[in-house]
């Protein structure tokens, strides 16, 4: 049984493709790539069909991650096939929970930084789009930091179903 995770930000060109790429690498490193499917989307469709922001690509490639990406908009019908929907900030969390067809679907939505014990009370990954390269580096650091806890949670679920 495949466990499906989708990362969601606003336009699907900065934060969510970064989270998708990092988490996909973590899943592969953990030997779970056949058991966990990872993708991403945006709450809006402004950039559908486009690649990731060039600054996202630069940061990802500079840290050894895959940067191949095509933006798309999240669709409520996807809740039926997804196990976990990971929002990059509170605005995405609220939008996704409103979009969820059922309470059970709304319960699938979590904030990425909720998986990072060091995050404290600030669980948003700030949008780097309107800033410089430092914002993209900071975004990657937050994503990487939260990915360990997220991987542990997903592994626990996957291994629980494999037993």
Explain the overall architecture.
The chain has five helices and four strands. It is an alpha/beta fold and 163 residues long. It has helices at residues 15-29, 54-62, 90-99, 103-106, 133-162; strands at 3-9, 36-42, 84-87, 109-111. The longest helix has 30 residues, at 133-162. Helix 1 packs across helix 5 (133-162) and helix 2 packs across helix 5 (133-162). A four-stranded parallel sheet has the order 2-1-3-4. Helix content is 42%, strand content 13%.
Q: What keywords describe this structure?
A:
163 residues, globular, alpha/beta, 42% helix, 13% strand, four-stranded parallel beta sheet
Task: Please outline the helices and strands.
Layout: E1 3-9, H1 15-29, E2 36-42, H2 54-62, E3 84-87, H3 90-99, H4 103-106, E4 109-111, H5 133-162
Parallel strand pairs: 1-2, 1-3, 3-4
Helix pairs in contact: 1-5, 2-5
End-to-end Cα distance: 11 Å
Look at the helices and sheets and give the structural class: alpha/beta
Note the overall shape. Answer: globular
Query: How many DSSP-defined strands?
Result: 4
Q: Give the mean pLDDT.
A: 96
Strand order of the largest sheet: 2-1-3-4
Helix content: 40-55%
Q: How much of the sequence is in beta strands?
A: 5-15%
Global Rg: 15 Å
Q: What characterizes the major β-sheet?
A: 4 strands, parallel
Please give the count of helices. Answer: 5
Query: What oligomeric state best describes the polypeptide chains here?
Result: single chain
Poorly predicted runs: none
> H/E order of the elements?
EHEHEHHEH
